[in-house]
Amino acid sequence: MDILEIRERYGKDIEAFRAAAHRCPELGTEERETTALIRQRMGALGLEELALGLATGAAFRLRGTGAGKTVVLRADIDGLPVTEPAENPDCSAHPGRMHACGHDVHMAALYGAALLLLGRGGAPGDVVFLFQPAEETTDGAESVIATGLFERVQAGCAFGLHNMPSMPIGTVGVREGALMAAKDSFSITIHGRGGHGAAPEQCVDPIVAAAAVISAIQTIVSRNVAPLDTAVISVCSIHGGHADNRIEDAVTLTGSCRTFRRETRALVMERLGQIAAGCAAAYGCTAEVAFSDETPPVVNAASLLGAATRAAEATGRVVRPDMVMISEDFSAYCERVPAFFFFLGSAADENAAPLHSAQYRAHPDTALYGAALLAGAALEAARDGGES
Ligand code: NI
Fold it and tell me: What spacing in Å lies between the alpha carbon of 103 and ligand 1's midpoint?
C-alpha cells in the first residue's frame, strides 16, 4: 500500500492519535496518561493486550494467520524535559514537557502499523505491538525484557525505528551491522584537602587536578583508540566548590563514553581509570572512578537485512545511513533476538531542527511512512522464516 492510499484510508486516524499523544508528553516511567491513551486506541481495534506488569507501557498481540514467526514491533513513548513553544499546534498540555524526540510520531506509526495489518487480515505470524516506556533514560527496554514478554510470546525477531530530522521525509535508512553506539556513563570524584583560598600550600587542590584529568582524558581517543576505530568520551558536568575564597575538598566529574566494539569499550574504561588515578596522584589527590548505565550498541541482524530492505523499498527511498554515536535501548532487544532498527526521514525542509530541540517538529507524513515500514517489516520477516 503506498503512502497516498495509507493517507486516504488511515491518515486522519493516525494523525489524531499522534496529536493526542503529542499533547501529553511524560517523562520515562511516568507515562500514565500516554499509556491510558494507547490502551484506549489499541483496545478499540480489538487487539489482545498482553499484561506487562509495569507501571507504564503496554503490549498488544495480533494473532497470525499461519505458522510464521512472531514479530515484535516496538515504539518508545516517553517525552523530554523541554518547554514547547506555546504557538505550536497540539502544543504540550504539560508544562516543561515536550515530545521533542518524536516518540509521539513513533507511537502513531506503531498504531498505524496495527491498522494496516488489521486491514489486510493480519500477518503470517503473530505480531506484538510493544509500546515501551523510558527510552530516554535507556532502561525501559531492559525493564520490558525483565517481564519475560519475549519468552511468553516466543519472539522470533524485533523491529523498531527512530525518526531523523537530518534525513528528508520519504527516505528510510537501512544499515546492516552496527548502527548506534554503546554508552557507558562515568563519574570521577577527585579527593584533595580543602582550606583557605589564600593558602594553597596548606591544601591539596582537587580543582587543579580535575582540570588536568579532563585534559588528559582527551588523549584516550586521540592516542589510545586506533585511528580507524571510533569512540567518544565527553565530560559533561563538573561539580566542586561554592565560595570564592575556599579550596574545596573534592570535585566530581560526570560524563559518558560511546563505543562500538567490545575491545574498544574495555580499553576506554581501563584508560579512564588509569588516567584519573595517575593524574590525580601527580597533583597529590586520589580519584574514585565508577561506571553505570551500560547500554550495548544497536547491531542490526544480518538475517533480517533482506526483510528490512524489502520493507524499506516498499515504503520510500532507501539510503544507507552513517553509524551514529547516539545510543538507543533498542539494543537490549538486539541482544535477545535478531533485531533491526531503521532510521526514518522526518525533515520537512533543509532547516529542520534537530531531535531534542524545542523547535523540533516532524514532517506530518512521518507517522504514515513509519506505519508502512513497520507493517511491511512484520510481513516480510514473518514470510522469511516459518520457524522462529
Ligand atoms: Ni528518541
Answer: 6
Q: How far is the CA of 328 from the centre of ligand 1 (A)?
A: 8
pLDDT at 386 over 60: no
Q: Tens digit of pLDDT for each residue in 126-164?
A: 999 999 999 998 889 999 999 999 999 999 999 999 999
Q: What cell does 260 get? A: 562500538
Q: How far apart are CA 274 and CA 231, in angstroms?
A: 17
Contact between 85 and 17 under an 8 Å Cβ cutoff? The reply is: no
CA 337 to ligand 1 centroid distance, Å: 21
Could you tell me the distance, in angstroms and rounded to a whole number, from the CA of residue 84 to the centre of ligand 1?
16
The interaxial angle of helices 32-44 and 3-23, nearest 10 deg, is 140
CA of 162 to the centre of ligand 1 (A): 6
Quote the ligand 1 centre to 200 CA distance (angstroms).
Answer: 47
68: CA distance to ligand 1 center in Å?
A: 30
Q: How far is the CA of 138 from the centre of ligand 1 (A)?
A: 10
Whole-prediction pTM: 0.91
Q: What pLDDT score does 138 carry? A: 87
Q: How many CB atoms lie within 10 A of CB 97?
A: 20
Distance CA 287, CA 266 (A): 19
